[in-house]
DNA sequence: TCCCAGGGAGGAT
DNA sequence: ATCCTCCATGGG
């Protein structure tokens, strides 16, 4: 099928944007989307309210994000496009002005990270379930590995959307994933498979409602998430930040622990809890964003 | 309390 | 070529 009926949306933002760096840092909002030779990233997104699934491809043009949308033969209304635009703004963190953050902490020990990672945005899930499962997969793993696992789930159970370059897949909804759980072996999730199945079951049965967590305080939502099997404090924070956009939740893993211990405790190794508390105490509502920049900074400088 | 579950790359030997 | 290590969570 040849796709030539793309609708173009142009999204502006305040402050710098670096789309490639943002996506390839590997936030658990969704697995890193595939890109074509022109560097456009493809994914399937569901339009709020009308629930129409469309293929979207995005690229950066100056400080703007260009999103091209194809709905195949389905008509998109003005309201659809408006809702999609709003969702995409949140998905790529365009609603936050990073300059505010850089300015507020310009004399902070992590200020060098702003130069190093300038334009990195917080991505936020357009599909809560996909983000929750992705967060579970990140545990005890590396970016390339969990992204592979999440992509395999999509290929095994998602809806297929052909493009001129490759097939693009949606993430299955909880009911579908649970129904096809016998196929999960092929996704090679290792011992995380059990966590994925149990959590999926609780969500498919409406024991836990991810959508309801958006509007309750961060720590209350965290308590709910911790009831799910395979979700501990770190993974819960990842979903709060990258799934729900709660920017006061800093996921604290071994890298952040080392970084915080070095910067704020003169290198004396502190516990994960102490390091998380330090981030919240120091960065307040920006704690999650501080974590995002610290992570990218530490990882990119420790490779060399 | 410690140890293991599964995955696969990257570093050390 | 083979071994060791990394990494969150839960359970024995």
Write structural notes for this entry.
- The strands form two sheets. The chain has a five-stranded antiparallel β-sheet with strand order 1-5-4-3-2, with helices on one face. It has a two-stranded antiparallel ribbon with strand order 6-7.
- It is of the alpha+beta class and 304 residues long.
- The radius of gyration is 19 Å and the shape is globular.
- The model has no long low-confidence stretch (mean pLDDT 95).
- It has 13 helices and seven strands.
- Strand 4 and strand 5 form a beta hairpin.
- The chain binds a DNA duplex (13 and 12 nucleotides) through residues 136, 138-142, 144-145, 149, 188-195, 229-235, 253-254.
Question: Which key features would you list for this structure?
Answer:
45% helix; 304 residues; TATA-Binding Protein; two-stranded antiparallel sheet; Endonuclease III, domain 1; DNA-binding
The computed structural class is: alpha+beta
Q: What is the CATH H-level superfamily of one domain?
A: Hypothetical protein, domain 2
| Number of DSSP helical runs | 13
Strand order of the biggest β-sheet: 1-5-4-3-2
**Portion of residues within helices:** 40-55%
- Major sheet: size, sense and barrel closure? 5 strands, antiparallel
Work out the number of β strands: 7
Order of H and E elements: EHEEEEHHHHHEEHHHHHHH
CATH topology of one domain, by name, is Endonuclease III, domain 1
Just name the CATH architecture of one domain: Orthogonal Bundle
**Ends: how far apart?**
44 Å
Q: Which ranges are low-confidence, i.e. pLDDT below 50, for 5 or more consecutive residues?
A: none
As a percent range, the share of strand residues is 5-15%
Oligomer: single chain
Radius of gyration: 19 Å
């Amino acid at each position: 099928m040849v796709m030539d009926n793309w609708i173009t949306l142009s999204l502006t933002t305040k402050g710098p944007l670096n789309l490639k760096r943002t996506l390839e840092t590997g936030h658990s909002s969704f697995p890193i989307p595939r890109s074509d030779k022109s560097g456009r990233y493809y994914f399937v997104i569901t339009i709020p309210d009308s629930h129409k699934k469309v293929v979207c491809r995005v690229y950066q043009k100056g400080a703007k994000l260009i999103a091209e949308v194809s709905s195949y033969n389905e008509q998109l209304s003005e309201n659809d496009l408006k809702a999609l635009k709003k969702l995409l703004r949140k998905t790529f963190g365009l609603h936050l002005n990073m300059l505010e953050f850089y300015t507020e902490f310009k004399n902070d020990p992590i200020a060098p990270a702003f130069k190093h990672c300038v334009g990195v945005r917080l991505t936020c899930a357009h599909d809560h379930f996909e983000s929750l499962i992705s967060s579970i997969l990140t545990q005890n793993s590396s970016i390339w590995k969990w992204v592979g696992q999440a992509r395999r789930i999509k290929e095994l159970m998602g809806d297929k959307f052909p493009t001129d370059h490759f097939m693009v897949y949606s993430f299955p909804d909880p009911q579908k994933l649970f129904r096809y759980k016998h196929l999960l072996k092929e996704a090679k999730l290792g011992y995380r498979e059990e966590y994925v199945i149990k959590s999926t079951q609780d969500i498919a049965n409406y024991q836990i409602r991810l959508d309801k967590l958006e509007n309750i305080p961060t720590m209350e939502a965290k308590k709910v998430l911790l009831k799910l099997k395979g979700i501990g404090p770190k993974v819960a924070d990842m979903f709060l930040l990258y799934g729900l956009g709660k920017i006061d939740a800093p996921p604290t893993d071994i890298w952040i622990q080392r970084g915080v211990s070095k910067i704020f405790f003169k290198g004396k190794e502190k516990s994960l809890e102490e390091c998380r508390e330090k981030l919240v105490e120091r960065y307040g509502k920006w704690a999650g964003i501080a974590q995002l920049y610290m992570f990218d900074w530490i990882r990119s400088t420790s490779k060399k």
